[in-house]
C-alpha cells in the first residue's frame, strides 16, 4: 500500500515536485535507451526544497511512472509514492554534505564497473586525467571500497570524501563504488548527467586502450585550471 500524504508534504512546492518528476523520468528513459542502465539497476533522486523525490526500490529506470516516484520529507519519512530506493540515505547525505548537490544519479554503468574489476588507476583517482574534458567536467573521483548495496556505512565514506576534497579546494562531483558503479551529482539533471556520461566514456576509452595512455602533463593541467577553473 502506498504511503498516505501527510501535512509535511505541504511544504514541498507542487510545481517544483512535478518538474522534478519529469526530470527523473526523462533522465531514466535516456540512460536506459543508451545502455547506461539495465534491468532494475541504479537509482535517481532530486532534492526539492527540504524534500527528496526518488525512484522506487527495484524500479526499472527506463520505465518510470511519475506518480509512483517516492517523496520523502525532511525527517526522512515517506509521504507519497512507492517504497523509496534503499540508497536514498546516501543521496540525502550527499545533498547535506554538498550544498550544490540537488540531483543525484547512481548507475551500474558497464565500463565503470569493469574498471573496478580490472583495477582502478588509484584509490584517490579511479582514472588518470587523460583528456581535457575529463578534467574539466568530472575532476577527481575516489574509489569507495565494496559494501553491500544500501549499506549505511557507504554514506559516511562518501561524505568524508566530499569534506576532504572541499577542504583542499578540489570539490568532487562523483565517487565510484567498488563493483557497484558510479554515484554522481550536480545542481540539476543536465549537470549530473554530463558528469556521468564523461566519466563512463573516459573509463571506456581507457579500457579500450589497455590502460596505457599517460596523464596530461602538469603544464596542461595548469592551463585547464587557469583557463577554465578546473578543479584538479
From TrEMBL:
This is Class II aldolase/adducin family protein. GO terms for biological process: pentose catabolic process. One of its GO terms (cellular component) is cytosol. PANTHER family: 3-OXO-TETRONATE 4-PHOSPHATE DECARBOXYLASE-RELATED, FUCULOSE PHOSPHATE ALDOLASE. It comes from Streptomyces viridochromogenes (strain DSM 40736 / JCM 4977 / BCRC 1201 / Tue 494). InterPro entries: Aldolase_class_II_sugar_metab, Aldolase_II/adducin_N, Aldolase_II/adducin_N_sf. It comes from the Bacteria. It holds the Pfam family Aldolase_II. GO terms for molecular function: aldehyde-lyase activity; metal ion binding. Residues 22-207 form the Class II aldolase/adducin N-terminal domain. The keyword Lyase applies. Keywords: Lyase, Metal-binding. SMART domains: Aldolase_II.
